[in-house]
TrEMBL record:
It comes from the Bacteria. Keywords: Membrane, Transmembrane, Transmembrane helix. InterPro entries: DUF6949. It comes from Rhizomicrobium palustre. The chain crosses the membrane at residues 39-58, 70-94. This is Uncharacterized protein.
Length: 96
């Protein structure tokens, strides 16, 4: 039971960190045009990816532009990505 709680906490923490990063980036930056801007965008998307992926999948699913299988596949990838991100951040927290 303890392991399940840690897994769920890591997913929630990763998805929350992803959402905060995505929204801060949207507030601060415009669409990248230059090479350094694109490199920074790629780096930010490593952290913001789960939130952006799930948001785009949900928007497409509501507009009937993708199947339910594609939506759930994107949701599973976003969940696993959130889990990995959450474990990384939790590992940093426990190490200090």
């Amino acid at each position: 039971m303890h392991g399940l709680v840690i897994i769920l906490f890591a997913i929630a923490f990763g998805f929350t960190a992803s959402g905060i990063t995505a929204n801060l980036y949207r507030l601060i930056a415009n669409k990248p045009e230059s090479l350094p801007g694109k490199v920074v965008y790629a780096g930010v998307m490593v952290l913001a990816g789960p939130s952006v992926l799930f948001g785009n999948a949900a928007k497409s699913f509501r507009a009937k532009k993708c199947s339910s299988i594609a939506f759930w596949l994107a949701a599973a990838v976003a969940g696993y990505w959130s889990f990995a991100l959450g474990l990384f951040v939790l590992n940093l927290y426990v190490a200090h």
